[in-house]
Design goal:
The complex is a heterodimer of chains A (299) and B (263).
Chain A: E1 3-16, E2 19-32, E3 36-40, H1 47-55, E4 62-67, E5 70-71, E6 79-82, H2 94-105, H3 111-124, H4 140-153, E7 158-162, H5 170-187, E8 190-195, H6 198-204, E9 207-211, E10 219-224, H7 233-238, H8 242-264, E11 271-275, E12 278-282, H9 291-298
Parallel strand pairs in A: 3-8, 3-9, 6-7, 7-8
Antiparallel strand pairs in A: 1-2, 1-4, 4-5, 9-10, 11-12
Chain B: H1 9-30, H2 39-51, E1 56-58, E2 61-62, H3 64-95, H4 97-110, H5 115-125, H6 133-159, H7 163-171, H8 176-214, H9 219-228, H10 232-261
Antiparallel strand pairs in B: 1-2
């Protein structure tokens, strides 16, 4: 298999009043065609920054991104993005939200063909009966289904998912992971997903890229996940390697949490909360730019 | 839900409030404000204007609703100009930091200027228009006074568009026009309508001043004329009419505004 997406020495530096803040430094990663890769790391470590640079929503300070042999410049519908919040336009129905993207991606197709594409993807994610509802009439889980349908319906070269299930309760999360993995298998998309859920990454991905904590975040370790596909949640959980891999991930995250703590001690102590069995830290607010700052920096 | 103490309090209480004011008014007109016509006298003198509201007996002797209609037509024109000019300016302010930095200070300076100050300038500007001068001057004044709430609310609305929506536009690579019509305008509509409602209120305030100074037929012009003719009852009739019309306009706009709030 050949490299499809290549990130080489990807670097992001924010200039602020305290001087340059190196968020991501020399991030290198190659993803093969059809591979599902998860980026895992603590909140604020820069994993979302990497994803939004690939999505073209955030300019990189250094390094390059090559997708399918072409250097990426700016955003475009060749990459389907699923955001953390569903990001649907509330004045459009589910159908119109997906159609908006399909109209862009398939501008040469006839209106009838585009309508069929939209209907197909909305049915596949289980919204055949709710197509013409507004986002306010849909549950959080259903909205994210629309978000997934919108990303796949673009027929993108690759999928980028930024903690797409982070806001959902665990039952809905399981359902949507199933929806996602089935669509991914059908469409054979290359996918890069950011998450901080260890079990989610083990269930979904072929490889898990662990990121060290920022500032100057980089690839810490890469874990190959070789559970047979198509995967059943039960079979994955019962696989003899499952807990070994899970331990490995958690150990990595814990080591980096402690390393970070030692660094932070003289400053504001980071808030701690637990996510499943992993402990995560939230960086003090001034450490990592908010999405708004990112956006204004990229202008 | 159990706030109301008795069944028709929504009707009885306001009527009681009106009654109190009428009583005070009668007392005042009977005691220290001898020039103030009593409610009864006001009704007697205004009866003809109210009971045949669309009659036209002369240029300045017409039914009260006929006068109101003239005023509303003028307000509608000036208000339309205010929205057509104000909304794009608001969008520019909200979208471009440079534009905002350049023009925000001058807007803040022009905004508090009274309609009474703009009107003479408006009349001078359209001096060449001859007979039309007073109408164009009044329109100019209404438009320039009424557009600020639209300008500022639109700008706030554009700035408040969630980054998520803009990211969607970026990822889908929507063209500039598509982004404007599919994302920016729908996202800003609720704010725009708040501005529109406030602008309409101001436009209605300005009309009276504009008509008084230009002597145009209309509810404000009539008010001024009756002051000069010493028919004080009609002044009160005009005040009540202006108030009621303003209230109705505001209610109508807030119904429209609420429709867009949920979108």
């Amino acid at each position: 298999m050949s490299t499809y997406l290549e990130l080489s020495n990807l670097t992001k530096i924010y200039e602020n009043s305290k001087g340059p803040q190196i968020v991501v430094k020399d991030f290198n990663l190659s993803i093969n065609k059809g591979e599902f890769v998860c980026l895992i790391g603590h909140s604020g470590c820069g994993k979302s920054t990497v994803l939004s640079m690939v999505a073209g929503l955030n300019d990189s300070t250094g390094g390059g991104i090559i997708l399918a042999g072409k250097e990426l410049v700016g955003a475009g519908p060749d990459r389907g993005v699923v955001f953390q919040s569903p990001s649907l336009l509330p004045w459009l129905t589910a159908f119109e939200n997906v159609k908006l993207g399909v109209d862009q991606a398939f501008y040469t197709a006839s209106n009838e063909e585009r309508r069929q594409i939209v209907e197909y993807y909305l049915s596949v994610v289980g919204l055949a009966n709710a197509m013409h509802k507004k986002p306010t009439e849909l549950s959080q889980g259903m909205r994210q289904r629309v978000g997934i349908a919108r990303a796949f319906a673009l027929s993108p070269k690759m999928l980028l998912l930024d903690e797409p299930f982070g806001m959902l309760d665990s039952l809905t999360r399981f359902e949507l992971q199933q929806v996602l993995i089935e669509l991914w298998r059908k469409d054979k998309k290359t996918a890069l997903m950011v998450t901080h859920d260890v079990d989610e990454s083990l269930f979904l991905s072929d490889r898990i890229v662990m990121m060290t904590n920022g500032p100057e975040a980089e690839v810490g370790d890469i874990l190959e996940v070789k559970f047979p596909r198509p995967r059943e949640r039960k079979a994955v959980l019962e696989h003899p390697d499952y807990y070994r891999l899970r331990e490995h991930l958690i150990e990595f995250l814990e080591v980096h949490a402690h390393y970070k703590k030692a660094h932070e001690q003289e400053r504001i102590p980071p808030a701690r909360f637990s996510l499943g069995e992993t402990e995560c830290q939230v960086l003090p607010k001034n450490e990592c730019p908010t999405p708004k700052e990112m956006a204004s920096n990229s202008n | 839900m159990n706030k109301s103490k008795f069944k028709f309090d929504w009707l009885v209480l306001p009527l009681f409030g009106i009654g109190v004011v009428l009583l005070l008014w009668s007392v005042f007109s009977a005691t220290w404000a001898k020039e103030l016509p009593s409610p009864m006298k006001t009704w007697e003198k205004s009866r003809e204007l109210i009971l045949s509201p669309f009659a036209k007996r002369g240029e300045m002797d017409q039914g009260i609703l006929r006068f109101t209609w003239y005023s509303l037509v003028l307000v509608a024109k000036g208000y339309a100009i205010a929205l057509l000019v104000g909304t794009p300016i608001g969008f520019c302010l909200g979208l471009s930091k440079t534009f905002s930095k350049t023009f925000d200070p001058i807007i803040q300076i022009l905004r508090p200027v009274s309609p009474l100050a703009w009107l003479p300038l408006g009349l001078i500007l359209f001096l060449g228009a001859g007979k039309q001068a007073s109408e164009l001057g009044a329109l100019f004044t209404i438009a320039i006074c009424a557009m600020w709430p639209t300008v500022l609310n639109t700008a706030v609305g554009v700035r408040a568009i969630p980054q998520d929506y803009l990211n969607v536009a970026k990822v889908l690579k929507l063209s500039r026009t598509k982004t404007l019509f599919k994302v920016l305008i729908p996202a800003t509509l609720p704010y725009m309508f708040t501005g529109f409602r406030l602008s309409l209120g101001i436009a209605w305030l300005v009309i009276v001043a504009a008509e008084m100074l230009t002597g145009r037929p209309g509810v404000g012009g009539f008010l001024w004329q009756e002051y000069n003719s010493l028919i004080y009852e009609h002044i009160i009739l005009c005040i009540i009419t202006i108030g009621v019309v303003g209230f109705v306009l505001d209610r109508l706009m807030s119904v429209v505004e609420k429709r867009f709030k949920t979108a």
